[in-house]
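Here is the promised in-class demo. Please do not try to memorize the tokens; focus on the logic of going from shape to residues.
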């Protein structure tokens, strides 16, 4: 596929919002994934038999090569969402291939830091392939309890190796913790995508903690959440494009100014257009920088640019 240039004032379509969530045992992580849109579950944890509700189709794998081959054969074509359960066990199946590929990827039978980076990169490459199929991706993970650099407890997805997690973190728009509650005032289950002290999270759509309902009565809970996320991120993209259009209306004129009268004319045009506050700040920066380079400055009394 040829590369597509998307200019700053053009909206980027948002049709792929990969989701990862993790949590302690017993909170229904696998069950929640079944409420995604038409899911196929790649069951690396071999725990699909424990689902309490009617489950969607399940495929079980022992090697990552089998996953690649089934994808190439179109085994996931009929489904809208590919669920990985769990992410940590899925990556475990990639490790033998990474070790066999390059001696520098391993050390005494374990992955080296370089190997963990390769491991995460392999998974990210697969994610891009699924994106090209126009599928949603949901990755379910166990929770690993660790400590940060200051010795404070922290919760994160159970992935083998911090380098692998670092690579994978980049490709997800939503990473959340499935929690028992949000304190004494908010009982129940919540998916919390907000980064905070003591947990790994990522929140591109800017959601508040999401209450998890009784899934018997909300069989499309995750499907609707992902759709909301796409709309929310899409609106941000639209605002970004609109801002770029506001700035582009004046920026070339400002950059081309060679005389003081020209800069003041551009300044007056910006004021009369009444752009958004963000656009106004950026255009003001462009004008003041251009003025300084030419030996001019803004005079507050006359509200115009003058020679220094």
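The designed amino acids, position by position:
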């Amino acid at each position: 596929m040829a590369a597509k240039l998307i200019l700053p004032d053009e909206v980027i379509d948002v049709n792929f919002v990969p989701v990862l969530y993790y949590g302690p045992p017993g909170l229904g992580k696998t069950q929640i994934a079944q409420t995604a849109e038409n899911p196929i579950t790649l069951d690396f944890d071999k725990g699909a038999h424990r689902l309490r509700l009617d489950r969607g189709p399940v495929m079980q794998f022992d090697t990552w090569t089998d996953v690649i081959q089934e994808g190439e054969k179109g085994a996931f074509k009929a489904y809208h969402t590919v669920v990985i359960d769990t992410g940590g066990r899925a990556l475990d199946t990639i490790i033998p291939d990474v070790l066999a590929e390059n001696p520098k990827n391993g050390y005494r039978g374990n992955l080296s830091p370089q190997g963990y980076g390769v491991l995460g990169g392999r998974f990210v490459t697969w994610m891009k392939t699924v994106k090209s199929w126009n599928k949603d991706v949901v990755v379910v993970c166990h929770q690993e309890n660790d400590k940060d650099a200051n010795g404070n407890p922290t919760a994160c997805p159970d992935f083998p190796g911090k380098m692998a997690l670092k690579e994978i973190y980049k490709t997800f728009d939503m990473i959340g913790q499935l929690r028992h509650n949000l304190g004494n005032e908010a009982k129940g289950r919540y998916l919390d995508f907000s980064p905070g002290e003591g947990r790994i999270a990522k929140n591109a759509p800017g959601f508040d903690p999401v209450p998890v309902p009784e899934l018997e009565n909300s069989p499309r809970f995750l499907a609707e959440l992902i759709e909301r996320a796409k709309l929310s991120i899409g609106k941000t993209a639209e605002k970004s494009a609109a801002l770029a259009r506001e700035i582009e209306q004046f920026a070339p004129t400002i950059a081309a100014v060679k005389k003081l009268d020209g800069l003041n004319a551009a300044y007056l045009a910006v004021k009369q257009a009444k752009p958004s506050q963000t656009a106004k700040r950026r255009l003001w920066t462009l004008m003041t920088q251009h003025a300084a380079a030419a030996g001019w400055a803004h005079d507050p009394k006359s509200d115009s640019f003058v020679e220094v």
